[in-house]
Structure formats: C-alpha cells, structure tokens
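Weekly sync, protein design subgroup
Attendees: M.S., D.O., the rotation student, P.L. (late)

Item 1: inverse folding check
M.S. brought a backbone from last month's batch and wanted to see whether the design step gives back something sensible before we order anything. D.O. pointed out we never logged the input encoding, so this time it goes straight into the notes. Structure tokens as presented (382 positions):
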C-alpha cells in the first residue's frame, strides 16, 4: 500500500513538474504592437494549439494560434517552413478548422479578413465582424482600410474617434505621428509604408483634425489598383498603370508621384525602405522624421533644429510612466529619432553649443539603450 501511494505521489509530482515547464499561453498581438523572436512565437503556437485540442471555449484561442503561426513566419520564414508539427499550419488550414469550431463568430470573421489567397473580398467579413462587435480594437485597422478604399469620410472620422477612445494605439506612436505631421509644409504629400507610420496619421487627421491638408499616401496600399485609382483621382494625380513585378511596384509609385506632382511638397517618412527611392537619394534631405524631396539644395539642418527645438514633443522619449504592452514596438519606432539627433549633435558641436550637444547626446543614448540600438552611440563619440 505504501509503495502504491509513493508511486501515485511520484506520478502526481512529475505531472505537476511537467506542467510547470509547459509554455503558458499568452495573448499574441500584432507585430505592430509587440515584437518577439521566432522561439516565442513557436512556443505560443504550441500552447494555443494545446488549448484548442483540450476544447477551450475561448474563441480568441483561434486568433492567437493564427497570429502565432503568421508571425513566426515573419520572424523566420525558413525556420517556420522547415518545422513540421501540428501546431504549425498554413493559414488556410487554420481557417477551415475555425469555420467548423467557431462558425459565424466575430473571431472567425476577423480571421477571414487575413485570408491572403484572394478567394473572397475581405470587406464582406470586415462588416460582418463590425456588426457583431462594433469598433472592436482588433478590426480597427481593417475598418480604416475599408473606409479609406471607399473614401467614406464620415466613417473615417467615426473610426478614428473610436480608435482614440479605445486607447489601443500607444500614445508614443501617436506623438511621433503628431511630430511629423506638424513639421510638414502646407498641402504636403507624405509617402508612408507601414502600419505605425500610417494609421496614427489618419487617426489624427480624421479624429482630431490635425493637419488634414497633408495627403498620406501609403505605398503598400497604393500597390492595389482600385485604391490607387481612387486616391490619385481625388488628389488630381495622373493615373498610373503598373505593369512591372511586385518587387518594383513601390519604386514605380514613388517615381510617378515625384515626376507628376509639381504643386505640392513631397516627403517620405524615415521608416520607409530607402531602396524604394534610391534613384532620388541625392535629392532627399533629412528634415526630421521625414526626408523632403527637393531638386535644389537647402539648409535642412536649420529645419531639423527648428523642428526639434520648437515643434516636436519629446519628453516621452526620456521615461515611460506606465506599463505599455506595446513597448517593444514603441522602442522600435523611437529609433527614427536617432538620425535626427546625430545630425543635430554634430551641428551643435560645430557651433560650439556644447551644453545642447550633451543634452541631445544623452537623449539619443536613452533611445538607443531602450531599443537595443546601442551601435548608434559610436557615431556620437567621433
């Protein structure tokens, strides 16, 4: 009897020990909010697949499993492809399983908007998801895209205000968008590329009427023919028929805008891949969080100095006073300030303004340390 009890106790302890080593399922947010490595996404794919296999009633388990699979591929596509396991599945497989497990649910319709196969119009599922859970933060980006495609200004304003009310978008990312917007010349065109250098601008413009005169042209979305046609027509930009490959479309769009727009200043955010405008590199001048296209040289250092000293809100770079779930994404966005600070540091040094030089260097060090971009600091030591 004693031997049996010891055996049972030993098995229980082993079970609890193994359970302790199992990866705890955690929310898997979009990579525009949280950035993790491949191993973390793999562990979460395992954990959420296990929750699903155990019969969880939490429908978000399907969203997090899908996200873990998707972002593991973002982190390391080759590694993701090489691992053959039940927790790693193609998007279409997960969608088919979800259709059976959580039919006609908000979570399923959200996942359907991520269907990249082109088999359905995502707009249909965006509106179905919206009907079940209006202005759920999960679908705000998709709603924004939908109303942008349809140039529905009333709903763009409403979605923007709901996004602000939700507090889903980190204040730091909003502040960076604000800094960039207010520093642009009137009626500028700002070429953007990613989520965090596009949606905050639209939210500020439509939700708070901050610099609505600026045209935000997202290069990635402009690759889509219907959207580009509507947008170019509304801003009186000549139509563009793209015939080259996907890898050259972004360059084609930038070239078309630069060569066909003469009456509006053109800027490109510092977060946009420089390969997209390498043909115009000698005519791009850093003025802050953007490069300005100019055929003629100008004193861009004076513009940078005025922006940093008189326009930009920068206190948020010094210290965060709250627990921000998106801190990793914020830190990545903050690296956009390092090139500006370096230019200004060199300028202060040349002008003999040592106190200002030290102050901007210390702020750059804080940004570099928080973002893991400490290699930048070697340029401040020259």
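Designed sequence read out in the meeting:
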């Amino acid at each position: 009897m004693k031997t049996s009890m010891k055996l049972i106790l030993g098995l229980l302890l082993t079970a609890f020990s193994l359970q302790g080593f199992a990866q705890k399922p955690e929310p898997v947010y979009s990579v525009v909010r949280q950035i993790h490595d491949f191993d973390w996404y793999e562990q979460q794919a395992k954990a959420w697949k296990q929750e699903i296999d155990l019969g969880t009633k939490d429908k978000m388990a399907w969203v997090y499993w899908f996200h873990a699979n998707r972002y593991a591929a973002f982190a390391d596509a080759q590694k993701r492809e090489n691992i053959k396991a039940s927790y790693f599945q193609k998007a279409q497989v997960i969608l088919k399983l979800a259709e059976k497990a959580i039919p006609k649910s908000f979570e399923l319709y959200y996942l359907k908007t991520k269907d990249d196969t082109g088999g359905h119009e995502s707009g249909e599922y965006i509106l179905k998801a919206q009907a079940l859970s209006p202005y759920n933060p999960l679908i705000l980006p998709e709603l924004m895209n939908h109303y942008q495609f349809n140039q529905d200004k009333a709903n763009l304003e409403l979605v923007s205000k709901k996004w602000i009310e939700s507090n889903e978008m980190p204040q730091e990312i909003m502040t960076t968008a604000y800094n960039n917007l207010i520093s642009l010349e009137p009626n500028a065109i700002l070429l953007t590329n990613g989520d965090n250098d596009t949606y905050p601008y639209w939210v500020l413009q439509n939700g708070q009427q901050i610099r609505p005169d600026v045209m935000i042209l997202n290069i990635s979305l402009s690759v889509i023919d219907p959207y580009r046609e509507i947008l170019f027509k509304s801003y009186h930009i000549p139509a563009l028929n793209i015939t080259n490959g996907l890898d050259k479309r972004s360059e084609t769009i930038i070239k078309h805008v630069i060569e066909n727009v003469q009456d509006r200043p053109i800027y490109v955010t510092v977060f946009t891949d420089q390969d997209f405008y390498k043909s115009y590199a000698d005519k791009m001048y850093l003025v802050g969080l953007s490069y300005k296209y100019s055929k003629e040289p100008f004193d861009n250092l004076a513009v940078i100095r005025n922006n940093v000293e008189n326009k930009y809100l920068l206190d948020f770079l010094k210290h965060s006073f709250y627990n921000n779930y998106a801190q990793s994404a914020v830190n990545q966005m903050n690296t956009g300030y390092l090139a500006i600070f370096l230019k200004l540091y060199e300028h202060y040094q040349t002008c003999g303004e040592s106190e200002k030089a030290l102050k901007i260097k210390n702020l750059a060090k804080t940004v570099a340390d928080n973002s893991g971009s400490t290699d930048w600091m070697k340029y401040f030591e020259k």
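Discussion: The first helix runs from residue 2 to 21. The two ends are 77 Å apart (CA to CA).
Action: P.L. to compare against the previous round before Friday.
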